[in-house]
Amino acid sequence: DAGVTQSPTHLIKTRGQQVTLRCSPKSGHDTVSWYQQALGQGPQFIFQYYEEEERQRGNFPDRFSGHQFPNYSSELNVNALLLGDSALYLCASNLGMTGGYEQYFGPGTRLTVT
Amino acid sequence: GESVGLHLPTLSVQEGDNSIINCAYSNSASDYFIWYKQESGKGPQFIIDIRSNMDKRQGQRVTVLLNKTVKHLSLQIAATQPGDSAVYFCAEDASSSNTGKLIFGQGTTLQVKP
Fold this sequence. Notes:
The structure holds two protein chains of two kinds. Chain A is mostly beta strands. Helix content of chain A is 0%, strand content 50%. Chain A is built from no helices and eleven strands. Chain A has strands at 5-7, 10-13, 19-24, 31-37, 44-50, 53-57, 64-68, 74-78, 87-94, 104-105, 109-113. Chain A is globular and about 35 Å long. The N and C termini of chain A lie far apart (37 Å). Chain B is globular, with a radius of gyration of 13 Å. Classes of the chains: A mainly beta, B mainly beta.
């Protein structure tokens, strides 16, 4: 049973550039959430996708956007990168809109902005 | 506002002893709480959860206690093992219907001494 997978593992970008991160949910899951985890901090909720729509959003600017595909996989896009966007980006999946518990996390994508 | 915080940043215990990790939350309306374990280079791993209609829940070697009166959550690990060394996060579902908008605390580092 495949767990949550994310790509790439690591990424280095320059300020002002744009980045796309990818996530495949755990088999059987249809809801994907994205989190940003700065070094030494807990993850912070960015947004959640269900039925190919953004259903919930945290306190992140519009530079952060996403997409969910019919196969439930998801992308996180960040435009106009800032140094402060350097972090571990985590994807989590669960089943259904009321399955908030037992979110399964992927290993994350480490983004470094220089 | 909503926040979840940890009382201690680092906890050091002897192998075989019991560990207790504490967490305070501020949103009295929160209905669902989760503990995650995060090892270096990995995403958070679900440990145990508890709903607000319970005050205690047990898993394998772990127990979560919820005190709604003082808005306090704790994770007890019995017979702590070296493999338990990790950062532990408590999380609170900040959505109105437990749809998975998780608010994480800062984390407590558990160090197990052999």
